[in-house]
Design goal:
Length: about 375
């Protein structure tokens, strides 16, 4: 909830930040929280198939100066990033920009390597040169936040959780590219002293998530009368965190985190994929019954499992709770109901971004 943690968010007031990937699902939520706190946010986004101006246009300006401006561009364009840093002089960079869908990384890994590795390197180098020329006080205050994922750690067994010291064992091209970005951020801190902080998070859900991810895909397909495809036996487990809680964690890491450290954010809501889909079907049965009768569960179909499909993810976020005061404002039961309600009220958004994405891919 953007209105919560008002005292904490006041530390962002009248500050300028550079946020990459800010027109995406997670990035735009963080931008909204920052603008509401009175910050000025320079958003850099390549507006690829999963980034949309519509994700930002709903954000109201803050009465005391909070605002954003969108610059269309790629994190692999070092000249552009350097120009923006010189022009706007941000006190921090938050790097949300990434190619992020595992299936797409399996089918076409090259763009993931380019964006998630070369792009992160380009951002770190631009940040380093900018940071080196700051005055002492500005230099001490500057931060580079690298946004990552729990998938860099690989797959858990039936017990235990990932934590900040867990060894990285990525199993997909996507997670390998994100692990590489994390290693680069760590190296730029230890080698050059660039004040980097890394955050790793579990699966996000909430409004404005592009409909290729599990929860919006199932809602979209259910309402369209399409099959609800579930990989393998449906028993792969993910920990779910509401996007607003995740972004509040990132902003706490930005302002309260220790440079050179990493922080994990979890939702404390482990669910099998089958449980999530059943939950969606049951809520839709209640809120928007099928015109032909029966349950949306009848549309579930099992499909061939994803290559290298990790079995279980979960994060121990006790470090973030202890050191950052991280907290969750959404439990899954209420969060998923509110998320479904948002998609039901915004079906035009889903149709618009799906068409937009198709046009971008065709081009």
């Amino acid at each position: 909830m953007i209105t919560q943690n008002a005292d904490f968010l006041s530390s962002l007031f009248q500050q300028t930040y550079l946020v990459t990937g800010g027109a995406g699902f997670i990035g735009s939520t963080a931008v909204a929280q920052m603008v509401h706190a009175g910050a000025h946010v320079v958003v850099v986004d390549a507006l690829t198939y999963a980034g949309f101006r519509e994700n930002l246009e709903w954000i109201p300006s803050h009465p005391h100066g909070g605002s954003y401006e969108l610059v269309e561009g790629s994190i692999t364009d070092g000249a552009l990033i350097s120009q923006l840093l010189t022009r706007h002089r941000p006190c921090a960079i938050i790097n949300f920009a990434a190619e992020s869908h595992v299936d797409n990384s399996i089918e076409s890994p090259s763009q993931f390597m380019h964006t998630n590795i070369i792009g992160t390197y380009t951002m770190l180098e631009a940040a380093r040169h900018y940071w080196n020329h700051l005055e002492a006080g500005e230099k001490d205050a500057f931060r580079f936040i690298q946004i990552s994922t729990d998938e860099v750690y690989g797959s858990l067994g039936e017990t235990g959780k990932f934590h900040e010291e867990y060894p990285m064992q990525p199993n997909s091209p996507y997670s390998a590219s994100k692990a590489a970005g994390d290693h680069l951020a760590r190296a730029w801190f230890h080698t050059y002293g660039l004040p980097t902080i890394i955050t790793n998070c579990t699966n996000n859900y909430g409004p404005r998530q592009y409909p290729e991810k599990l929860i919006p895909l199932m809602i979209h397909h259910a309402l369209a009368g399409k099959d609800l495809p579930i990989y393998g036996d449906g028993r792969n487990i993910r920990d779910w965190i509401h996007v607003e809680d995740h972004c509040m964690g990132v902003l706490r890491a930005l302002t309260l985190g220790t440079v050179g450290e990493s922080y994990g954010f979890g939702g404390n809501a482990e669910k099998t994929n089958m449980d999530v889909v059943h939950n969606i079907c049951d809520l839709l049965d209640e809120i928007r019954p099928r015109p032909q009768g029966g349950s949306y569960r009848e549309q579930i179909r099992f499909v061939k499992d994803r290559l290298g499909h990790d079995r279980r993810y979960a994060i121990d976020d006790s470090k973030a709770i202890r050191e950052l005061g991280f907290m969750r404002s959404h439990d899954f039961a209420h969060g998923i109901r509110a998320t479904i309600a948002w998609y039901l009220d915004n079906q035009a958004w889903c149709e618009s971004v799906t068409r937009d994405a198709a046009h971008k891919r065709a081009a």
